[in-house]
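Reviewers of the previous submission asked for a worked example of the structure-prediction workflow described in the proposal, so we include one complete record here. The input consisted solely of the amino acid sequence. No template or homolog information was supplied to the procedure at any stage.
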Amino acid sequence: GTEDALTRVLPALQRRGMRGSFFIATGLVGKPGFLTWDGVRALAAAGMEVGSHTVRHARLADLGEAEVRTELVESKRTLEAELGRPVDLLAYPYNSVRSRVRKAAAEAGYRIGVSGVVHGGSDPIDLRRVSVTRDMTLEQFQQAVSAR
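From that input alone, the workflow returned the following structure tokens.
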């Protein structure tokens, strides 16, 4: 949900004829360095997948049940209202997830959740994802996606 998603990443994907998934922490939209709602809608209009990254980007495993539910439900509800379409994709903040968090995500209506290489696997509500950084080499990327 940072500004460079629109200014750098989207153009690079479009040049290559590729699509991407962007995860938005709804409480950060409009803050310095983050996308505005117009920017989030522009990503969706360009054919990119837009998913939730919760409201505050809090580590869900550290929150109580009610807070987890609020983070998941409110982010999904806000994104759907702003985009005018269903949002069923979630990236767990800090790639951290526990069984109670996975259960809450499914109950909130998410069909797909992604977390990091430590927690993620093949369960659709907790898929393994590899974070790509700007200094990652092709060899490092290949190792990361083939590991496990």
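The mean pLDDT is 92. We consider this example representative of the routine output the project will generate in years two and three.
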